Amino acid sequence: MLQTVETADATGAAPSAGRILAASFVGTAIEFFDFYIYATAAALVIGPVFFPAGAPGVQQLSAFATFAIAFVARPVGAALFGHFGDRVGRKATLVASLLIMGLSTVLIGCLPSYAAVGWWAPAALCVLRCGQGIGFGGEWGGAALLAVENAPPGRRAWYGIFPQLGAPVGFVLANLGFLALSFGLSSESFQAWGWRLPFLASAALVGVGLYVRLKLTETPAFRAALSQARPERVPFATMLTQHGRAVLVGTFAMVAVYAVFYLSTVFALGYGTGTLGYPRPTFLLFECIAVCFMALGIVVSGAAADRFGRRPVLLSGMGGVFLLGFLMGPMLGTAAGTGSWPPVLGFLCLSLMAMGWVFGPMGAVLPELFPTRVRYTGASVTYNLAGILGASGAPYIAQELVAVGGIGFVGVYLAAAAILSFLAVLAMPETSGR
User: Fold this and answer.
1) Is residue 246 over pLDDT 70?
2) What pLDDT does 58 receive?
3) Is the pTM of this model over 0.90?
4) What is the DSSP string of 259-321?
């Protein structure tokens, strides 16, 4: 059961709710910014810069493969940071995860190209993508716990939306950065060096995040758990042996969340600018508009989850994602041309609002599935295992499905992910009263 007790900082004053929620939000916004600038670069430039030319589409597929690497590394980071988060504390672990993610991101911006050093370039890129994944693996769980373990009774889902809001904000910052570069640089300059600027700018953002997080104290629930008993010796083992069912239902419940997001952003960006022929600035602007609907979905669903319960909100969202699968072909199959853009923009707005609707309550749901003593490990591992199943291969699989049967096949793939998550939520207990 989640507990809330008063905790004082070094000056003797309890940390304010505003400071706690700001720290939860700012850190995830930076982490998501780091992750999304790579996702955008993978759709636009990573293939030509880091891989040799080959058959049509090979460079793009190679770029999407490096995109998947970080998702495979994320559960490793979740287990590693979860171990220390459950034994040492949330604060120190959150600082470490932010540093690792930020350093990996900045170094990607410094890498030489394939033309300069050959296969050393993609090899180094893969190593740094692993670093990004490990850092990100420890980030979300700690940020969610920071929010919900400080929440007053009946407000955990509302507090839990603040780390979730880091996703659309990080996404907008990433896309606006690339949009500005698209307007300010020629295609040649962008591919030669311009794409590196968002990666290098991450250093300043990480500094802001560290400043906010170093001022935090430990969460009340963690301090209360330590006062009752020593921490688990190996939280990961306890999670597997005693809470395996929670891991499974939480993981599969998140699959559709990841699938709809990365199909509507990373895959859609490559598909829209490549197959459909939309200019890069136009499609980036579409996605910046659409992600505002994602933020709206997060806020509304978070409030609804506290009022009506987690399961009804999530089940309605999964139903929406299922329907979107059958709208993808008709709406996202419109090639660039005069008056042709409203269905494309409409689909992006609908899909990202549905994503926000199912993503919002997860900030509370996944932590609520686990007791305090293994909550960092459980929530983090569950969240990041879902990333492997729902996101790591989604752009790659979608690219292959388009080649086989067109955009309609990708819609069927999305609908199947929604069915899987719907069944997982049906098997999940209602956690709002825990």
Assistant:
1) yes
2) 73
3) no
4) HHHHIIIIIHHHHHHTTS---HHHHHHHHHHHHHHHHHHHHHHHHHHHHH-HHHHHHHHHHHH
